[in-house]
Design goal:
Helices cover 49% and strands 19% of the residues. The protein is of the alpha+beta class and 263 residues long. The protein has three domains: 48 residues, no CATH class; 45 residues, no CATH class; 116 residues, MucB/RseB, C-terminal domain (Phosphorylase Kinase, domain 1), CATH 3.30.200. Strands 1-2-3-4-7-6-5 form a seven-stranded antiparallel beta sheet, sandwiched between helices. The longest helix is centred in the middle third of the chain and has 33 residues. It is globular, with a radius of gyration of 25 Å.
């Protein structure tokens, strides 16, 4: 049995708990009578389980931070009421508490920046994991693209009206990386363009995001998928593939060379 794209979309929504009760019951019935569909669901669950293991951990809750600060504040008050404070040194734990309080008061700006940086890293890590998950889902779909074309003049305008991002779609077939189509993924709650390339039997998904920063280069692999990031033209591009890291780095270099040169 061939599973069509509409069925895969329904299966993804079923997996994410986004179907209505009646649609869920209908999908339950289909899964019971269609073994191949059930296998696809198992694959989706395996992908989700694997990616959750590498997602950034959540920040400590506010109540924990408040509890620590309250404890330090109480120790400071006890120390300030000690009649022998002027002639006796603070006990080690009180000295530590005092140092922490001074650091908190004097380094609020630095601490705030550190928290902001950590949040930025966590958000970036979350996006990267969403991109890898979308790539893996595309691999188990009937096709890894919504539009099949090797013509960049067909793929690029196809994104118009489907996403607000206008990426470049270079033709790198002469270098061994053939453009085979494009699709739209939902990353960070927004529809974003994804260009699909083929390297021998391997698929490379290139996601364009509306942000720009320093080139990150190769990133840690996620569930066996290699990832590389680069920027240019006001956009960030993230490529995900099981192709070997050397080939993916070569692809990123060739793609980057096609980006518009800043004036």
């Amino acid at each position: 049995m061939t599973i069509d794209r509409d069925t895969m979309l329904l299966l993804n929504a079923y997996h994410d708990g986004e179907l209505s009760p009646s649609e869920t019951l209908a999908m339950d019935a289909r899964l019971a009578r269609e073994p191949e569909l059930a296998l696809r669901l198992d694959a989706l669950r395996s992908i989700s389980t694997a990616t959750r293991k590498v997602l950034p951990g959540e920040a400590a809750p506010d109540r924990l931070r408040a509890s620590v600060l309250a404890s330090i504040g109480q120790d400071m008050r006890l120390a300030s009421n000690d009649e022998d404070l002027e002639v006796s040194p603070l006990t080690p734990w009180r000295a530590i508490a005092a140092s922490l309080m001074i650091g908190l008061l004097g380094g609020a700006t630095i601490g705030g920046y550190a928290v902001y940086s950590l949040q930025q890293q966590q958000e970036k890590g979350q996006l990267e994991n969403e991109i890898v998950t979308a790539h893996l889902r595309a691999l188990i779909a009937p096709q890894p693209f919504d539009i099949a074309s090797s013509d960049n003049h067909v793929v690029k305008p196809w994104f118009n009206g489907r996403t607000t991002i206008a990426p470049i779609t270079p033709d790198l077939a002469s270098e061994g990386f053939a453009l085979i189509g494009g699709r739209v993924d939902l990353i960070g709650g927004k529809p974003v363009p994804v260009m699909t390339y083929r390297r021998n039997r391997h698929i490379i998904s290139v996601t364009a995001l509306e942000r720009e920063g320093d080139d990150a280069g190769p990133l840690p692999s996620v569930v066996g998928t290699n990832v590389v990031e680069w920027t240019g033209g006001g956009l960030t591009y993230i490529a995900a593939s099981d192709v070997n890291p050397a080939d993916l780095a070569t692809f990123a270099k060739l793609f980057r060379e096609q980006l518009p040169t800043p004036r």
